[in-house]
Design a protein that fits this description.
heterodimer, A: alpha+beta, Alpha-Beta Plaits, 7-stranded mixed beta sheet, 3-stranded antiparallel beta sheet, B: about 525 residues, Rossmann fold, Immunoglobulin-like, 8-stranded mixed beta sheet, 4-stranded antiparallel beta sheet
Chain lengths: ~200, ~525
Amino acid sequence: MAIVRLEALKQLSKAITCAVPALKDRICVGQAPSSREMRWPSLAIIPVRWRYFPDQALEHSDPAPDRVIMNVGRHESTIQLRLGASTLFERMELEQEISNLFLETPLHPGVLLTDVTACPLEFRAAWELEEDEWRNELAFDKAYFSITQLTGIIPALVTRLDAWTIDQLQLGVALGDDFGSATFGPPGVEVVLIAEDGTITPSP
Amino acid sequence: MAQDVYFTSNPAEFTQVEGLYVVEKDPPGFIQGADLGATGIAGICVRGPSTVQWISSTARFLEVYGGRDRGSGGALVGEVWRSLLNKRFGSLYIRRVIATDADTGHVHVEEGVDGAGTEVLKVAASSPGDWAADVGWKVEDASDGDANHFNLVVRYLGETVTYENLNIKTASDDNLAEVIGDDVANWVTVTKLADGRPANNSTVTETDFVAARDADDFVQIAAIGAAYTTNVGDDGTAVSADYISAITDLAYTPGPYCCFVAGASVDQNALNGTLVTLAPLVADKAFLTWSGTHGQVVATESANKGTDITTASGRIWWCFNSAYTLDPETGLEIQVPPHEWMAGICSQTDVDVHPGDRANAQYCAGIRRLANETLTRADLVALRAAGISTLEKLPDGAFLFRSAVVTDTTTGKTEIARRRSADYLILSASDRLRYYVKSKNTLENRAQMAGELVAFSNALKDASRIIEDFAIDQSMNTDASRGQGIEKIRWDVRLIGHMLHLILESTIGTTVTIEES
């Protein structure tokens, strides 16, 4: 479910915009297209590597009667923040404001938590500042950009279709040697309906 | 002030506010064996409620339902008591059969002493029946010395219970429920009728009351004459419908497995007809019954069974050959029906144990003799073929069910052990699988259900209990049926069989050649 990762990155973008108003409408998620006009200041959020760590599948939510969202582990992403500004001083100010956004998080400084509610799911993504250093990226002999790195942790959510609610659970017990028969019902198979409270009744 | 730690399993809550969220997840589930040892008995008792009660000990049974009779010997009243006699049982679910026209004895106790005062208190027997006449009561000074309070002393069969410091003096006073409680074993129920303080029995001057009062100031319920509001308890006359409603209540009560009517109904044919109706409607019970007539010949018994059980069922077990056992209170032999012994055996043995297993003779040790001890092989063959389980006297003097069969004589379905094993498996599995009802029909949940059945089956198989081999199949489900919310699981089980017919083939002679292997 790529939308999960994309929405998480968008939410990171929003969080930075809120904390650094100067970057409003100047943040690009992913590499900007070549046709895009360069404007200052600007910030690119660039995922450079995704890794998936599987875990036991657990139900996350059921957004519709016929489907269920399963949490099947987590994605960990290495993300670069590429900041550009017209002057070195302005860039340093923005670097500090962005770093502060991560460091100001109560209880766990350095980790930014963003709640994603825009897509059909609700989940929380974590963004861990890996280094406090912004490295200059040189363009010819001018340093226009500086880069720092994050680790993003996003739940791996997938949709199971045709996952209807079990309203009627029927257990058929066949005693004998007739293994593998496809029939389901009397006389060979004794069928009971199992109710939520554990009571059972013979299936009609 | 908000908590620092928030316990929730709702992921949506996590993002509401910063904090520590503790999510407690259910550990992986497993199927555990069901208990089929509980027995349901409907029948006449000396006293007790008409709702089904769970009884876990003999002492509890006696305090709720009474014993053999009203305490003074004489005619046996407690048919359920008799059904328990000289047998072993596990826990019981008792449904007292009470006649529709039975009545509850009570008396209205007055504030004044002359029989013309305000009725302030109603003392009633806790259940309908003649036994109310054996309950004595008296009002006396309260233990706490408060003149507005009183003690109520209740006497029954020589024992007394004192409810201390009762208070119904003013509109805001009523501690009756708090002090007396509502345990079904209580002898009386006590209700406030009006504000006041009932007169001490010792101070009452009304003539009939004084005449009824004994040396200890007790008077029996309903024994104090026309000056008081009273009602005489009455057993009434139980009719067929009373037995039918009792066994029907048991049929729909979760818990008991073997269910039967103690002794016989006043109309055993109608009762057996009801069992025929109930059997296909329940999936967790077996109904034990008999002809209702002691000492019948085989042909009559078979004919009765054929007439009553119009639709044979694996859940109806018909037993034959009444037994004599000792009444410990009179020292006399009494005749008791056979199906009660079968229920006792089933309550004490594992589901895959054949009720006729030789080791089960211990559960019939209370039998002194049988009504018919001269059954022939032909009789036993005929009874088995008719779907009748027969108590038999063995050559060594022990008593045992030779055949333990259900009334359904379909080949392969005749054994009681098979029925019990099937029900054990179904009840065990359903008690766990119910947690999947209303859950999402995901691949994970389906695999988990199957996995739990496999683990349970393997545990039994490895222990050489019940299951010899098994298979789980969910392939009959389709997208369409799952879209309708239906999930089916087929559980194929090959049971471990019993050695019902042990054949020892021998060739003895001087010309026999012995091959050494």
